[in-house]
Every structure is written in C-alpha cells, then in structure tokens.
C-alpha cells in the first residue's frame, strides 16, 4: 500500500503528467490510500480561494472509492505520532499525513521537499 499526498492526488485525478514515472508506477502497482486530511485540506483551500478543483470534495471522495483508493481516517495513534515529529514542516495537514504513513509503515507519494527532510518517512517521487 502507498499513501498519496494531497497534491499528488489532485495530479493523479486531473493532471497525471505532473507525476513522475515513479509516482505513477507506484499508484498503478499498489493498493492506494489517501488521508481524510487531504480532503479536509482541499476543502479549506477551496474556501479560501487558494485552490480551484474540477469537482466537489464529495465528488473527489467518490472518485477515490471508485478507483479503489482507501480514505484513511485519523486515529489516536496518528495523533500521538505527530508529537514525535520534529517541526521541520509546520503544516498540520502534512504532519498528519506523514504520521499516518509512519504509523502504517507505508511509503508516501509526495513532491513536498520539506517532507523529504524527515527520517522515517518512506517517500516516492
């Protein structure tokens, strides 16, 4: 299984050419998941007019389900894991997504250079 970061999910759904060959291959060859935090992050960015999506959040969630992409809830263990993460990356959405990847022992598909600074997060890009 692989976890898809928010930007990578948007690209996978709408602009797959923005993904690297490694990212596209990981999505094609593995069971995939996306954090509920990604949907939450998109909702906030849309509301603040920082992001324009080609679908509603529910539409994106439905597409994920149709594609077999699991939507991960946030668990107390994920929240506990956040406490151990250094504050290299201060974005709360990215911190919970990293925590979820670590807790589940799965790689994270991301281009985010700040996430690449963390040890313990297996990254694909």
Task: Explain this structure.
This protein has 125 residues and is an alpha/beta fold. The protein has one domain: 3-Layer(aba) Sandwich (Rossmann fold). Helix content is 48%, strand content 11%. It contains six helices and five strands; from the N terminus they run βααβααβααββ. A five-stranded parallel beta sheet has the order 3-2-1-4-5. The longest helix is centred in the last third of the chain and has 13 residues. It is globular.
Brief digest:
The protein has 125 residues and is α/β, with parallel strands linked by helices. It has one domain: Rossmann fold, CATH 3.40.50. The protein has helices at residues 6-14, 21-29, 36-47, 57-66, 76-82, 92-104, and strands at 2-4, 32-35, 70-72, 108-109, 123-124.
CATH superfamily: 5'-nuclease
Which structural class do you get from the secondary structure elements? Answer: alpha/beta
**Terminus-to-terminus distance:** 15 Å
CATH topology: Rossmann fold
Number of domains: 1
Oligomer: single chain
Helix share, percent: 40-55%
Task: Report the order of strands and helices.
Answer: EHHEHHEHHEE
Overall geometry? globular
The CATH class turns out to be: Alpha Beta
- Rg of Cα set: 14 Å
The biggest beta sheet, please? Answer: 5 strands, parallel
Total of helices: 6
Strand order of the largest sheet: 3-2-1-4-5
Provide the residue-averaged pLDDT.
Answer: 96
């Amino acid at each position: 299984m692989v976890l898809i970061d928010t930007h990578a999910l948007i690209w996978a759904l709408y602009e797959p050419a923005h993904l690297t060959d490694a990212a596209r291959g990981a999505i094609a060859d593995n069971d995939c998941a996306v954090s509920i935090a990604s949907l939450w992050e998109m909702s906030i960015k849309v509301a603040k007019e920082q992001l324009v999506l080609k679908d509603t959040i529910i539409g994106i969630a439905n597409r994920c389900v149709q594609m077999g992409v699991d939507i991960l809830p946030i668990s107390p263990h994920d929240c506990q894991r956040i406490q151990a993460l250094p504050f290299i990356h201060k974005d709360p959405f990215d911190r919970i997504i990293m925590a979820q990847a670590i807790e589940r022992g799965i790689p994270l598909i991301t281009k985010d250079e700040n996430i690449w600074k963390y040890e313990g997060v297996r990254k694909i890009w």
